Amino acid sequence: MSEPLRTVNVGLIGLGTVGGGVARLIKSHHDEYLAAYGIDLKLTRACALAWEQAEAAGIEREAFTSDWHDVVTDPAVDIVVELIGGEHPATEIFTTAFENGKHVVSANKALLGRHVETLAEKARACGVQIKCEASCGGGIPIVSTLEHDLVGNKILTIAGILNGTTNYILSRMDAEGADYADVLADAQAKGYAEADPSADVDGFDAASKTAILASIGFGTRVTTDDVYQQGIRTIGAEDIAQARELGYTIKLLGIARNTDAGVDVRVHPTLIPADHMLAKVNGAMNAVYVVGDAVGETMFYGAGAGSFPTASAVVGDILSLSEQISRGVVPLPEIEPYGHNLAFKPMDELQTKYYVRLKVADRVGALSETVDIFAKHNISISLINQVEDGKSGVSDACSVIFLTHRALEKDVQAAAAELASVDCVAEVANVLRIEDVEAWTEGVMAN
Amino acid sequence: MSEPLRTVNVGLIGLGTVGGGVARLIKSHHDEYLAAYGIDLKLTRACALAWEQAEAAGIEREAFTSDWHDVVTDPAVDIVVELIGGEHPATEIFTTAFENGKHVVSANKALLGRHVETLAEKARACGVQIKCEASCGGGIPIVSTLEHDLVGNKILTIAGILNGTTNYILSRMDAEGADYADVLADAQAKGYAEADPSADVDGFDAASKTAILASIGFGTRVTTDDVYQQGIRTIGAEDIAQARELGYTIKLLGIARNTDAGVDVRVHPTLIPADHMLAKVNGAMNAVYVVGDAVGETMFYGAGAGSFPTASAVVGDILSLSEQISRGVVPLPEIEPYGHNLAFKPMDELQTKYYVRLKVADRVGALSETVDIFAKHNISISLINQVEDGKSGVSDACSVIFLTHRALEKDVQAAAAELASVDCVAEVANVLRIEDVEAWTEGVMAN
């Protein structure tokens, strides 16, 4: 080893699932990092609420503190790793660390989804970096891919299975013909889903990640609030079965498109062709499909959560910073990364095909009334299919699936509202989008 | 834009499919790179055998030369891009460029597959870098992923569909039930396969890429010569059909495993479970499946060839070097990257299940004789299936498929040799490995 070795001091805040994994990974791989990269990585400070947590993660007694200020102000610390999540005190940890000249590695999608731009500006002003590979897609190196590897491209589309819990639920519903509530209950019993599952099943988690990936991929300002959001609670076994019969798979996708009509960002259950690569991603695994104008279609697949997969991303960021620090080179702040200020395409203006499931009154003329309402809103129907479900919950109504031709979101929502208000419709059970995956590759350069 | 802008001068050698794509990508995206990264990327010199080639790629007259020495010795050039392929004069281009203080970006898998270590040493001695993202997997950012993003892991397994031509042929054989020769002829007619297809169908191309990825992923010396190599010429429609019936898909895989028994590197047609992510990669697309001990299973999917996909990788490398050059920071040479000097596991010692197709004489006792030969070589058979193919080419013989239990490569090859020599066997049509994909994730850290 001819390079000078240097100790890089890490200050770790948060010793939960991910933080504990990071501590254990750094400890078990210390000698390998030293041999391979010349980096003597030390967990110099570690902060958790209780010593027991730190002890379980193998932290030395003298490194432990329960006050995060001790970590971010410690002159020895080169890199602060924030793994507590949430907005506060994470924001204060970031800014105090920056002011003390420390780089920050974080997996905090909630914070970065809302404030990546202002935090990046602050880091830039202080001459330090934020690295957030672990905030999206767990162990999948997707942030780095967008930030570095695909920079020769204009990124046209990002479409991701970004939440393992919902993909696990939808995959099991598909494999077993099971109902949402039953699979969710089982997933909760097994620890795959939280007691309060809303961050996952209502799409918040995926929306934060979609915002971060769109910001980085498109080089523009996208926050979680810009992302249209619809969850999977209304998806039933009959929807999955119907979709499959029509050649589709239902996935909760975070979709970001960089179109001439503006940036289109949304999270919702989506019908995609069953032979699309994203449709083949099952269980709790994540995948991010990216289209660049030069590279064309790509997909990046891996574990989106879990202690060691996420720790892999965190430690990758730490080592990336360390390789520069260890040679005395100050890591370069990125050039103003969100400079494009692209306009958004309003959700109302989305045009695609739709899958609508209604509970229609079981009487003559009811179906014809519903079709009239679609027509009144400029929506033309390509298929109507009455579903035998035997458990519609409304004894004098039956489930009917409508597939539309290409229609305008605004019109479909207006039609859905009117359908919900008329006597012949007992329930508008689902309004789902059938994604035009062909459009995802529009703008790819012809070879 | 508050950062100082700087012109980065690129010298491009080779203006074929990839070189032409690089020239056109740099030209069409010049303003975008300037706006987004502050880099004024200039194609200062470009070398091709004929001016017409350069003109077609949009090269300025004054930048053109037909002598590569003009490019590597031009004091203005910061980065040399070598896209001519082959060993000579590519080797001289690399070394002269290094001696002139220039970084080299290359897609030259043949050269790097044999000499990546010595070239990297030379670059290191000259204080410059080699970037070779485009040498493996075309547009898929797999080199960077192994070099940077997954550095927190011990890489356990790399298994890739690294050759688009063979995946296209195998996918079409699978979809259409077609024979190898027919699909190859059609692929040649359409320009998907070369007139002399041996580099693709015999596995040379995949072997070079496997060597490069294993070198980088495991941090050890692996050259193309270390990679066991078997192509797809012997695969027939009946093999594909039989495999499918047994729940497998046949893919030409480049497999590299970092095991306690040594590094195991090989390219061969492989039976993998039909529900494995690699089995779902169809057509000319490539994918690299990587297992790290922390991150677990990952897969990276995209176009493995083509003008703009490969140019995406080349320009990604150019911009990565440029971001450092443009701020006056000399890109850091990597720490001795192939320092592990791991031992190889001899191919003879491979242990897995096998798929063997024999043409067995159509007479009483013939089958029993073959089974005896397997038994004599310590190979136990799990399934025997006589195939009705109607076109075996040997009128008094029939195709019989044997699946083995776990056996030793050495024993299987010895049995195959003996089977080939006995009267009751007309032909040993195929000896294929059924990959133990469960073993690929052995050593992953438990969450």
Notes on the structure:
The structure is a homodimer of 447-residue chains. Helix content of chain A is 37%, strand content 26%. By secondary structure, chain A is an alpha/beta fold. Chain A folds into three domains: 6-136 and 307-325, 3-Layer(aba) Sandwich (Rossmann fold), CATH 3.40.50.720; 142-303, Dihydrodipicolinate Reductase, domain 2; 347-435, Alpha-Beta Plaits, CATH 3.30.70.260. In chain A, strands 7, 8, 9, 10, 11, 12, 13, 14, 15, 16 and 17 form an eleven-stranded mixed β-sheet that branches. A six-stranded parallel β-sheet of chain A has the order 3-2-1-4-5-6, sandwiched between helices. In chain A, a hairpin with a 2-residue loop joins strand 9 (248-259) and strand 10 (262-273). In chain A, helix 1 (17-28) packs across helix 13 (307-325), helix 8 (164-176) packs across helix 9 and helix 14 (366-376) runs antiparallel to helix 15 (409-421). Chain A is elongated. The mean pLDDT of chain A is 94. Chains A and B meet through helix 1, helix 2, helix 7, strand 12 and helix 13 of A and helix 1, helix 2, helix 7, strand 12 and helix 13 of B.
Overview features:
elongated, 16 helices, Dihydrodipicolinate Reductase, domain 2, 17 strands, Rossmann fold, 447 residues, 26% strand, six-stranded parallel beta sheet, HDH_CS (chains A, B), alpha/beta, EC 1.1.1.3 (chains A, B), eleven-stranded mixed beta sheet, Alpha-Beta Plaits, NADP (chains A, B), homodimer
Question: What is the compact description of this entry?
Answer:
By secondary structure, the first copy, chain A, is an alpha/beta fold. Chain A is 37% helix and 26% strand. Chain A has helices at 17-28, 30-37, 51-56, 68-72, 90-99, 109-126, 142-149, 164-176, 180-189, 198-201, 204-218, 237-245, 307-325, 366-376, 409-421, 437-440, and strands at 6-13, 39-47, 64-65, 79-82, 103-106, 130-131, 155-161, 228-229, 248-259, 262-273, 285-292, 296-303, 351-361, 381-387, 397-404, 407-408, 425-434.
